[in-house]
Amino acid sequence: DGVVYTELRRPCRTMILVNPHSGRGQALQLFTGHIQAMLTEASVSYTLVITEHQNHARELVRNADLSQWDALVIMSGDGLLFEVINGLMEREDWQQAIQTPLGILPGGSGNALAASIHNYSQLPPAWNEELLLSCGFMLCKGLVGSLDLVSVHLASRQRLFSFLSLAWGFVADVDIESEKYRHVGAIRFLMGTLVRLASLRVYQGRLAYLPAKEAPKPSKKNVKATHPTSTSRCSSFPCHLIPNVSPKKSSLTNCIGMNINQNSITNSSNVITNMSPQTQSNNMTTSLVDSLLPSLDQQVPENWTVVNEEDFVLVLAIYQSHLAEDLWTVPGAMADDGLIHLFYVTAGISRPALLRLFLAMEKGSHLACSCPHLVYEKVRALRLEPISQQGMITVDGEVVEYGPIQAQVHPGMAKLICG
Ligand code: ADP
Ligand code: MG
Hints:
The protein has ten helices and 21 strands. The chain is an alpha+beta fold. It has two domains: 143 residues, Rossmann fold, CATH 3.40.50.10330; 193 residues, Tumour Suppressor Smad4 (Sandwich), CATH 2.60.200. The strands form three sheets. The chain has a 17-stranded mixed beta sheet that branches. The longest helix is centred in the first third of the chain and has 15 residues. The radius of gyration is 21 Å and the shape is globular. The protein starts with 5 loop residues before the first strand and ends with a strand. The structure holds adenosine-5'-diphosphate (ADP) and magnesium ion.
């Protein structure tokens, strides 16, 4: 199906990181009960590391001797993989480090990536132990594909790497509020959804994005950033051309070219090399450049689309097929499709209509509901500027600082055990 895989070497040396508190607190028992024997039989040797606190995995991976490991695998929810990816990207040798094959065994309550890789291998849906066995089997097979990462910038200039989602409003609130029901497992999201529906609220903010395919004409719903007669209410939102960003530089062809290079050429055009006088001779520090993003205090480029609406129930950028084991949010998504799938729901949607959307999402049929409040766009970059004083933003299900946030996709940056 066009997906290119490599294979893990045999025998394969794996570090398996387990968060003993994830999900119902049974990750370790699930590992010994269902996975251990399977790995032994497949000659996958492993070292089990039980995390002791939040960011333990992140610190470990940041300092690990990666030449010792053929794969880093997490047995937890998506939160632990978020730690591992950010730990890898914080290293000086991030360009090599992020090539380490990553694996996931669902042991949490939010197992979105596990459900997604199961889905990518075109198997019928699976939950709980069945999903765990499927992911364990993939680890034994040892096929490695590519995984898109999304670079996220926060107002405090902090930068994060995300493999799953960026959420604001309803979805972020449900994710965080439902953590107190973690002991019930994946059904916590349905419970959280019902509770949040009862206190449904509207969130004010400004949203803009770079469409994956530049639309030839402004649509009715969205007005192109430079439209002179824009009826957009967000007049204070930066929306003209930045003089020093030429439209050619950020054109689609250019970014596709860049992305192809990125995988094959070590020091590709979107990698900056900073050489400080002290380190010039032997040590070069490099950082990944987000060529699609102006700085947060600058206006968005003219080829971006600025959303007219400012009243939202939710904004969700997702780059995998599943948001949770039973939320099939993007039926067409692939781990390395190079896309951010941007959904937003505008204010005015009724409670029953919103509930219908989430129930339909179990079968991936929410887009067929033809709900006029639901908008879906494929994008490469986006910016969100909340106006509402209070709210929650999550990245990969983890709360981040509330405020302006922007992101761009880097196709195929990481390696993922799947297929
Ligand atoms: P779940 O799907 O159940 O939420 P996650 O893997 O997302 O499971 O983990 C939940 C949170 O716990 C994440 O923020 C993660 O960073 C954090 N974490 C990881 N290891 C530990 C630990 N040993 N103790 C407490 N928190 C941890
Ligand atoms: Mg989580």
